[in-house]
Amino acid sequence: TVGNNNMWGTQFDSTGGLGNGFAYRFIYDKQEKDYWRNFGKIKTTTYAPSLSWENDNTKILIAYEHLDYTQPFDR
Questions:
Q1: Which end of the chain has the least Cβ crowding within 10 Å, N or C?
Q2: 3-state secondary structure the chain
Q3: Domain residue spans in the chain?
Q4: Distance separating alpha carbons of residues 3 and 33, to the nearest angstrom
Q5: What is the CB-side half-sphere exposure of residue 75 using CA atoms within 13 A?
C-alpha cells in the first residue's frame, strides 16, 4: 500500500488446515507515514495469530491480537 504523507504499508494473511480438526490463521499488518507536522513518523504494526479446533459438536477458537503504535510526542 502507498499513499499520501509518504505512507506505505504491507499486509500478510495466511489461513490453512493443520489436520485432525485444527486450523490456523496469521495476520500481519505494518504501516508507516510522516507525521502531519513534518517531524517524525507514525508507525503501526499488528500481529494476530489464531488457532481453532472443531468436531461435529464443538468448536474452540484461541485468538490474540497485538498492536504496536508509535507517534511523535506533540504538546
A1: C
A2: CECCCCCEEEEEEEEEEEECCEEEEEEEEEEEEECCCCCCEEEEEEEEEEEEEECCCCEEEEECCEEEEECCCCC
A3: 1-25
A4: 9
A5: 0
pTM above 0.70, yes or no: yes
What is the rounded distance in angstroms from the CA atom of residue 15 to the CA atom of residue 25?
4
**Buried b vs exposed e over 2-28: b needs ≥16 C-beta within 10 Å?**
eeeeeeeeeeeeeeeeeeeeeeeeeee
Q: Distance between CA atoms of 53 and 50, rounded to whole angstroms?
A: 10
C-beta of residue 48 within 8 angstroms of C-beta of residue 26: yes
